[in-house]
């Protein structure tokens, strides 16, 4: 059915159409390939070699837009907060050169380091390329131990001390400022000495720093930081974490007093033991039992230091169950003194009175 002159023109037209579509697809494919070619770097890596951590490191990676269309840089990012990357502008014409500036801030880093920066363009498929910088970092100053850990500290403590050693590469490194983030900590230089480089890994100066903990801290975990800033730029600023766990050194047992199952107006007696967990002497100055509304209960209370135990008291409470049925609740308030500082401890006393 396709034979004959009548079908020659349709076949020719169909052939021409196929040739035109093929040429169009080839052209589009070439343009896509050109656009995908995108940014081409002369070199995508740079090694700074052995460096000291006191100054930022910077390198420019030169690239060329090898596509046939203008490329736009959509995003530049790094995977580490110590690395920052940027470009001069966002758009680059075909065959135009540009550069990606990468900065590494090595403060706090040590040993071999490798950091990458990523560049995303609007090329087909959202092309992402990366550049890499590397270095072997030697700290300009070290701290031993790295953390001033005071461990368990009793609240009401006047002062505790820890000594750390700072070593610097520069023999003449001078401390310009020492400060902490809270008034509970301070630090001061105790001594300086010169080290033999061959015996100390290249470090030339040792500084003994005393970290002090002052005053009273609320019970719980506590953290601070001592900042040591050196004069000039040859030595980095040091951050020395300060950690402690503040505890109530004076404790009570039991944590609450229960009076249950007694009939109304029945007599009862209960005792509370007060001790110092650090084994330090203290004094019980007074004890009162008060209702939740603040009214003091008319219950006899006495206390005495335990024989042979300078860090323990026994408190004895005697009285009558309230002359009413139902629940009742009081607080036993214990005033203590230790090291010239007073502390009030509260112990709940509760129960349910039965009918007479």
In short:
The N and C termini lie far apart (119 Å).
Question: What do these coordinates show?
Answer:
With 356 residues, the chain is mainly beta. It folds into 3 domains: 39-138, Immunoglobulin-like (Sandwich); 141-247, Immunoglobulin-like; 250-354, Sandwich (Immunoglobulin-like), CATH 2.60.40.60. 8% of the residues lie in helices and 57% in strands. The chain has one helix at residues 8-37; strands spanning 39-41, 45-52, 57-65, 71-78, 83-87, 91-92, 97-104, 111-121, 128-138, 141-144, 148-154, 159-168, 175-180, 185-194, 205-214, 220-230, 238-247, 250-253, 257-263, 267-276, 283-291, 301-305, 312-320, 326-338, 341-354. Strands 2-9-8-4-6 form a 5-stranded mixed β-sheet, with no helix packed on it. β8 and β9 form a beta hairpin. It is elongated. It starts with 7 loop residues before the first helix and ends with a strand. Residues 1-9 and 19-37 have low confidence and may be disordered.
């Amino acid at each position: 059915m396709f034979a004959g002159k009548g079908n020659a023109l349709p076949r020719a037209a169909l052939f021409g159409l196929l040739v035109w579509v093929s040429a169009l697809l080839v052209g589009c494919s070439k343009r896509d390939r050109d656009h995908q070619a995108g940014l081409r770097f002369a070199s995508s890596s740079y090694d700074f070699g052995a460096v000291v951590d006191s100054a930022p490191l910077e390198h420019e990676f030169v690239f060329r837009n090898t596509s046939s269309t203008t490329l736009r840089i959509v995003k530049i990012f790094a995977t580490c907060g110590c690395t920052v990357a940027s470009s001069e502008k966002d758009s680059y014409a075909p065959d135009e050169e540009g550069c990606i500036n990468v900065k590494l801030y090595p403060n706090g880093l040590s040993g071999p380091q490798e950091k990458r920066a990523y560049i995303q363009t609007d090329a087909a498929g959202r092309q992402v390329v990366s550049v890499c910088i590397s270095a072997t970092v030697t700290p300009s100053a070290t701290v031993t131990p790295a953390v001033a850990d005071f461990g368990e500290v009793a609240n009401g403590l006047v002062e505790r001390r820890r000594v750390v050693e700072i070593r610097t590469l520069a023999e003449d490194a001078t401390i310009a400022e020492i400060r902490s983030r809270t008034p509970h900590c301070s630090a001061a230089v105790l001594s300086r000495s010169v080290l033999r480089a061959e015996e100390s890994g290249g470090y030339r100066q040792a500084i003994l720093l005393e970290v002090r903990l002052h005053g009273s801290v609320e019970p719980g975990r506590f953290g601070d930081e001592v900042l040591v800033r050196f004069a000039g730029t040859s030595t980095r600023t040091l951050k020395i974490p300060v950690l402690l766990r503040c505890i109530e050194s004076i404790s009570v047992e039991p944590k609450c007093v229960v009076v249950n199952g007694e009939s109304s107006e029945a007599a009862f007696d209960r005792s509370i033991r007060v001790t110092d967990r650090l084994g330090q002497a203290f004094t019980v100055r007074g004890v009162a039992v008060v209702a939740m509304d603040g009214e003091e209960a008319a219950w006899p209370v006495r206390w005495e230091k335990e024989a042979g135990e300078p860090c323990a008291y026994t408190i004895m409470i005697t009285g009558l169950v309230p002359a009413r049925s139902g629940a009742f609740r009081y607080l036993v308030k214990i005033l203590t003194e230790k090291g010239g500082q007073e502390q009030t401890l509260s112990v709940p006393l509760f129960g349910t009175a039965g009918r007479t």
